[in-house]
Amino acid sequence: MEEQQLQITKVAMIGVGSMGFGMSLLLGEQGFEVFFFDPSEANVRDLESKVRDLKLNDRVQSKDSYEALCQATKSPQAPRVLILSTPHGSTGDKIAKSLRPHLDPGDIIIDCANEHLSSTERRQRELEPEGDILSRLRRGDASILKKLMPFFGKLAAKDRSGRPCVMPIGPGGSGHYAKMIHNGIGQGMMPVLAEVWFMLSRGLDLSAQDIGDIFESWNKEGQLRDCFLVNIGADVVRTRDENGHSVLDSVRDIVVQ
């Protein structure tokens, strides 16, 4: 590939559960042609319904096989870009095996699953160029990452100066390592916030509005300033259903992903 930005216009999305669902819509809204595949008929139906609602039918389309997905995303201007948003573990291995017969050297797989870094690095080694084996986004290849940064920048959140919140992390499974730490922090903070809400609501008998005000004040100054989870926590505790009741009073006490 030449040392220039990749002219990416088509993206393959594999897995359209909660994360893949949102990414597919975001990519479509950003003007990319998105072709997606998911063995779950329910996931496909849900995304197709939302695509119709948003009138993105011309940009976001489903395919019924890996072969059809790869045919749809073939382009003379750029390598294929395939994004995985799938369960961690053996699923990624099965997908890689299914994709290999349909890909060309230089195609890029971006694994967005919650994968363990050792599995990521093993898969990268397996997909190294080897005869007719494919060239991949292996070990966070710096030159390929540099070409992909404008693409990532279009999808990333923006800071207060309008700069995309994205940067190269490092080689190997560095990205998944950073994601593991990020998820650990988030999953640790959420039950703490839930406990705080419980004490303020059930212990001190404060109203949802008062608790929201407290969360908002914490987000404005001190050690929790500009904390995303505290910020949205203020919005959540104030949210009411169509009958005017706090939604937190009717949330089922279970955790799913």
From TrEMBL:
Its EC number is 1.1.1.44. It comes from the Eukaryota. One of its GO terms (biological process) is D-gluconate metabolic process. Pathway: Carbohydrate degradation; pentose phosphate pathway; D-ribulose 5-phosphate from D-glucose 6-phosphate (oxidative stage): step 3/3. Residues 175-257 form the 6-phosphogluconate dehydrogenase C-terminal domain. Transmembrane segments: none annotated. Keywords: Gluconate utilization, Oxidoreductase, Pentose shunt. InterPro entries: 6-PGluconate_DH-like_C_sf, 6PGD_dom2, 6PGDH_C, 6PGDH_NADP-bd, NAD(P)-bd_dom_sf, Pgluconate_DH. This is phosphogluconate dehydrogenase (NADP(+)-dependent, decarboxylating). It comes from Hirsutella minnesotensis 3608. The lineage of its organism: Eukaryota, Fungi, Dikarya, Ascomycota, Pezizomycotina.
